Amino acid sequence: MTQTKIALVTGGSRGLGKNMALHLAQKGIDVIITYNSKKEEALAVVAAIEQSGQKAAALQLNTGDIKSFDAFYIQLKNVLQNTFNATAFNFLINNAGVGIHASIEATTEEQFDTLMNIHFKGVFFLTQKALPVINDGGRIINLSSGLARFSMPGYAAYAAMKGAIETLTRYMAKELGSRGIAVNVVAPGAIETDFGGGAVRDNADLNKMVAGITALGRTGLPDDIGGVVAFLCTEEGRWINGQRIEVSGGMNL
Protein backbone atom coordinates (compact mmCIF):
# COMPACT_ATOMS: atom_id res chain seq x y z
CA MET A 1 0.00 0.00 0.00
CA THR A 2 1.43 3.39 -0.99
CA GLN A 3 1.92 6.04 1.67
CA THR A 4 -0.70 8.80 1.48
CA LYS A 5 0.90 12.12 0.61
CA ILE A 6 0.93 14.87 3.23
CA ALA A 7 0.70 18.64 2.80
CA LEU A 8 1.72 21.34 5.28
CA VAL A 9 -0.35 24.52 4.87
CA THR A 10 0.67 27.56 6.92
CA GLY A 11 -2.19 29.81 8.02
CA GLY A 12 -4.70 27.04 7.35
CA SER A 13 -7.31 27.92 9.97
CA ARG A 14 -9.24 30.42 7.85
CA GLY A 15 -9.52 32.24 4.54
CA LEU A 16 -7.49 30.97 1.60
CA GLY A 17 -5.43 28.55 3.69
CA LYS A 18 -8.55 26.80 4.96
CA ASN A 19 -9.86 26.52 1.41
CA MET A 20 -6.54 25.09 0.20
CA ALA A 21 -6.51 22.54 3.01
CA LEU A 22 -10.04 21.35 2.17
CA HIS A 23 -9.26 21.10 -1.56
CA LEU A 24 -6.08 19.12 -0.85
CA ALA A 25 -8.10 16.69 1.27
CA GLN A 26 -10.61 16.30 -1.58
CA LYS A 27 -7.68 15.13 -3.73
CA GLY A 28 -6.83 12.40 -1.21
CA ILE A 29 -3.97 14.25 0.47
CA ASP A 30 -3.53 14.32 4.27
CA VAL A 31 -3.08 17.81 5.70
CA ILE A 32 -1.24 19.50 8.56
CA ILE A 33 -2.30 23.12 9.03
CA THR A 34 -0.70 25.81 11.16
CA TYR A 35 -2.55 28.57 12.95
CA ASN A 36 -1.26 31.64 14.75
CA SER A 37 -3.99 32.31 17.34
CA LYS A 38 -7.27 30.81 16.08
CA LYS A 39 -7.02 27.36 17.66
CA GLU A 40 -10.77 26.62 17.65
CA GLU A 41 -11.04 27.54 13.97
CA ALA A 42 -8.02 25.34 13.20
CA LEU A 43 -9.54 22.36 15.01
CA ALA A 44 -12.78 22.85 13.05
CA VAL A 45 -10.78 22.63 9.80
CA VAL A 46 -9.08 19.45 11.08
CA ALA A 47 -12.51 17.97 11.87
CA ALA A 48 -13.82 18.85 8.39
CA ILE A 49 -10.80 17.18 6.75
CA GLU A 50 -11.22 14.07 8.91
CA GLN A 51 -14.90 13.94 7.95
CA SER A 52 -13.83 13.84 4.30
CA GLY A 53 -11.80 10.71 5.07
CA GLN A 54 -8.26 12.14 5.25
CA LYS A 55 -5.99 12.50 8.26
CA ALA A 56 -5.31 16.00 9.60
CA ALA A 57 -3.56 17.86 12.39
CA ALA A 58 -3.08 21.48 13.51
CA LEU A 59 0.05 23.06 15.01
CA GLN A 60 0.53 26.55 16.42
CA LEU A 61 3.08 28.66 14.51
CA ASN A 62 3.84 32.35 14.16
CA THR A 63 5.48 32.41 10.73
CA GLY A 64 7.06 35.77 11.51
CA ASP A 65 8.91 34.42 14.57
CA ILE A 66 11.90 32.82 12.86
CA LYS A 67 13.52 31.79 16.17
CA SER A 68 10.58 29.47 16.86
CA PHE A 69 11.04 27.36 13.71
CA ASP A 70 13.44 24.77 15.17
CA ALA A 71 10.98 23.96 17.96
CA PHE A 72 8.14 23.88 15.41
CA TYR A 73 9.91 21.27 13.29
CA ILE A 74 10.53 19.09 16.34
CA GLN A 75 6.78 19.21 16.97
CA LEU A 76 6.07 18.55 13.31
CA LYS A 77 8.26 15.43 13.25
CA ASN A 78 6.40 14.10 16.30
CA VAL A 79 3.03 14.72 14.64
CA LEU A 80 4.22 13.09 11.40
CA GLN A 81 5.27 10.02 13.35
CA ASN A 82 2.31 9.77 15.71
CA THR A 83 -0.62 10.88 13.53
CA PHE A 84 0.52 9.99 10.01
CA ASN A 85 3.04 7.19 10.63
CA ALA A 86 5.49 9.11 8.44
CA THR A 87 8.94 10.63 8.75
CA ALA A 88 8.53 13.33 6.08
CA PHE A 89 5.89 15.27 4.16
CA ASN A 90 5.41 16.05 0.46
CA PHE A 91 3.95 19.49 -0.09
CA LEU A 92 4.76 22.81 1.61
CA ILE A 93 2.29 25.64 1.03
CA ASN A 94 3.63 28.96 2.37
CA ASN A 95 0.27 30.69 2.69
CA ALA A 96 0.23 32.47 6.07
CA GLY A 97 0.07 36.24 5.80
CA VAL A 98 -1.20 39.55 7.08
CA GLY A 99 -2.21 42.69 5.23
CA ILE A 100 -1.06 46.18 6.21
CA HIS A 101 -2.40 49.09 4.20
CA ALA A 102 -0.25 52.23 4.49
CA SER A 103 1.28 54.74 2.12
CA ILE A 104 5.07 54.78 1.73
CA GLU A 105 5.04 58.08 3.63
CA ALA A 106 3.09 56.60 6.55
CA THR A 107 4.66 53.11 6.78
CA THR A 108 6.49 52.59 10.08
CA GLU A 109 9.63 50.50 10.47
CA GLU A 110 7.66 48.18 12.74
CA GLN A 111 5.01 47.61 10.04
CA PHE A 112 7.75 47.03 7.46
CA ASP A 113 9.50 44.49 9.68
CA THR A 114 6.23 42.67 10.41
CA LEU A 115 5.54 42.31 6.70
CA MET A 116 9.11 41.30 5.92
CA ASN A 117 9.29 38.67 8.65
CA ILE A 118 5.97 37.03 7.75
CA HIS A 119 6.00 37.37 3.97
CA PHE A 120 9.66 37.02 3.08
CA LYS A 121 12.19 36.16 5.79
CA GLY A 122 9.81 33.69 7.45
CA VAL A 123 9.03 31.97 4.15
CA PHE A 124 12.75 31.73 3.32
CA PHE A 125 13.77 30.12 6.61
CA LEU A 126 10.65 27.99 7.15
CA THR A 127 11.34 26.47 3.72
CA GLN A 128 15.07 26.12 4.43
CA LYS A 129 14.33 24.21 7.65
CA ALA A 130 11.70 22.08 5.83
CA LEU A 131 14.25 20.71 3.35
CA PRO A 132 15.39 17.76 5.51
CA VAL A 133 11.73 16.82 6.17
CA ILE A 134 10.26 17.20 2.68
CA ASN A 135 10.36 14.20 0.36
CA ASP A 136 12.20 14.21 -2.95
CA GLY A 137 9.64 14.67 -5.70
CA GLY A 138 7.58 16.99 -3.51
CA ARG A 139 6.21 20.45 -4.24
CA ILE A 140 6.56 23.88 -2.67
CA ILE A 141 3.95 26.54 -3.36
CA ASN A 142 4.55 30.13 -2.31
CA LEU A 143 1.86 32.81 -2.25
CA SER A 144 2.28 36.14 -3.95
CA SER A 145 -0.31 38.72 -4.99
CA GLY A 146 -1.61 40.48 -8.07
CA LEU A 147 -0.13 43.56 -6.37
CA ALA A 148 3.35 42.38 -7.36
CA ARG A 149 2.37 42.88 -11.04
CA PHE A 150 0.18 46.01 -10.82
CA SER A 151 0.42 48.85 -8.32
CA MET A 152 -2.27 50.15 -5.98
CA PRO A 153 -1.32 52.91 -3.53
CA GLY A 154 -0.99 51.77 0.07
CA TYR A 155 0.56 48.35 -0.56
CA ALA A 156 4.17 49.24 -1.37
CA ALA A 157 5.86 47.30 1.43
CA TYR A 158 3.53 44.30 1.17
CA ALA A 159 3.84 44.07 -2.61
CA ALA A 160 7.63 44.47 -2.48
CA MET A 161 7.84 41.41 -0.19
CA LYS A 162 5.70 39.50 -2.68
CA GLY A 163 7.98 40.57 -5.51
CA ALA A 164 10.86 39.13 -3.49
CA ILE A 165 8.93 35.86 -3.07
CA GLU A 166 8.43 35.60 -6.82
CA THR A 167 12.19 35.85 -7.41
CA LEU A 168 12.91 33.47 -4.52
CA THR A 169 10.50 30.92 -6.03
CA ARG A 170 12.55 30.71 -9.23
CA TYR A 171 15.75 30.22 -7.24
CA MET A 172 14.12 27.50 -5.15
CA ALA A 173 12.96 25.73 -8.32
CA LYS A 174 16.49 25.89 -9.73
CA GLU A 175 18.25 24.70 -6.57
CA LEU A 176 15.77 21.98 -5.62
CA GLY A 177 15.26 20.57 -9.11
CA SER A 178 17.96 17.95 -8.51
CA ARG A 179 15.68 16.51 -5.80
CA GLY A 180 12.67 16.49 -8.12
CA ILE A 181 10.95 19.19 -6.05
CA ALA A 182 8.87 21.61 -8.17
CA VAL A 183 8.37 25.12 -6.79
CA ASN A 184 5.73 27.56 -8.01
CA VAL A 185 4.11 30.78 -6.90
CA VAL A 186 0.35 31.41 -6.90
CA ALA A 187 -0.68 35.07 -7.03
CA PRO A 188 -4.34 35.66 -6.07
CA GLY A 189 -6.13 38.84 -7.00
CA ALA A 190 -8.44 40.58 -4.55
CA ILE A 191 -10.41 37.93 -2.62
CA GLU A 192 -13.40 38.19 -0.28
CA THR A 193 -11.90 36.98 3.03
CA ASP A 194 -11.16 38.56 6.41
CA PHE A 195 -7.64 39.36 5.12
CA GLY A 196 -6.61 42.98 5.72
CA GLY A 197 -9.66 43.51 7.94
CA GLY A 198 -12.05 42.04 5.38
CA ALA A 199 -11.97 45.18 3.22
CA VAL A 200 -12.64 43.51 -0.15
CA ARG A 201 -15.50 41.48 1.33
CA ASP A 202 -17.12 44.17 3.48
CA ASN A 203 -16.45 47.49 1.72
CA ALA A 204 -19.06 47.74 -1.06
CA ASP A 205 -17.21 50.50 -2.93
CA LEU A 206 -13.92 48.59 -2.92
CA ASN A 207 -15.71 45.40 -3.96
CA LYS A 208 -17.34 47.23 -6.88
CA MET A 209 -14.02 48.82 -7.88
CA VAL A 210 -12.27 45.42 -7.94
CA ALA A 211 -15.10 43.87 -9.98
CA GLY A 212 -14.84 46.79 -12.42
CA ILE A 213 -11.14 46.17 -13.17
CA THR A 214 -11.55 42.37 -13.39
CA ALA A 215 -12.25 40.87 -16.81
CA LEU A 216 -14.63 38.28 -15.35
CA GLY A 217 -16.59 41.04 -13.63
CA ARG A 218 -16.52 40.08 -9.94
CA THR A 219 -14.21 39.86 -6.95
CA GLY A 220 -12.51 36.56 -6.14
CA LEU A 221 -13.71 34.01 -3.61
CA PRO A 222 -11.56 31.58 -1.57
CA ASP A 223 -12.97 28.72 -3.65
CA ASP A 224 -11.36 30.29 -6.73
CA ILE A 225 -7.90 29.73 -5.24
CA GLY A 226 -7.83 26.53 -3.18
CA GLY A 227 -8.38 24.21 -6.12
CA VAL A 228 -5.50 25.73 -8.09
CA VAL A 229 -3.08 25.12 -5.21
CA ALA A 230 -4.38 21.56 -4.80
CA PHE A 231 -3.96 20.94 -8.55
CA LEU A 232 -0.30 21.97 -8.34
CA CYS A 233 0.17 19.16 -5.80
CA THR A 234 -1.33 16.49 -8.09
CA GLU A 235 0.40 14.20 -10.56
CA GLU A 236 -1.17 16.25 -13.38
CA GLY A 237 0.67 19.35 -12.16
CA ARG A 238 4.09 17.72 -11.98
CA TRP A 239 5.68 19.52 -14.98
CA ILE A 240 4.77 23.05 -13.88
CA ASN A 241 7.89 24.47 -12.24
CA GLY A 242 9.32 27.90 -11.47
CA GLN A 243 6.11 29.60 -12.62
CA ARG A 244 4.04 32.52 -11.40
CA ILE A 245 0.38 31.63 -11.75
CA GLU A 246 -1.91 34.59 -11.23
CA VAL A 247 -5.43 33.62 -10.18
CA SER A 248 -7.27 36.92 -10.35
CA GLY A 249 -10.06 36.54 -12.90
CA GLY A 250 -8.08 38.91 -15.12
CA MET A 251 -7.46 41.96 -12.94
CA ASN A 252 -5.90 44.98 -14.66
CA LEU A 253 -5.27 43.21 -17.96
Quick summary of this structure?
The chain is an alpha/beta fold and 253 residues long. The protein is built from eight helices and seven strands.
Q: How would you explain this protein's 3D organization?
A:
This protein is of the alpha/beta class. The chain has one domain: Rossmann fold. Helices cover 42% and strands 17% of the residues. It has helices spanning 15-26, 39-51, 69-84, 109-130, 156-176, 199-202, 204-212, 223-232, and strands spanning 6-9, 30-35, 56-60, 89-94, 134-143, 182-188, 244-247. It has a seven-stranded parallel beta sheet, with helices on both faces. α4 (109-130) links the parallel β4 (89-94) and β5 (134-143). α4 (109-130) packs parallel to α5.
Helix and strand topology:
Layout: E1 6-9, H1 15-26, E2 30-35, H2 39-51, E3 56-60, H3 69-84, E4 89-94, H4 109-130, E5 134-143, H5 156-176, E6 182-188, H6 199-202, H7 204-212, H8 223-232, E7 244-247
Parallel strand pairs: 1-2, 1-4, 2-3, 4-5, 5-6, 6-7
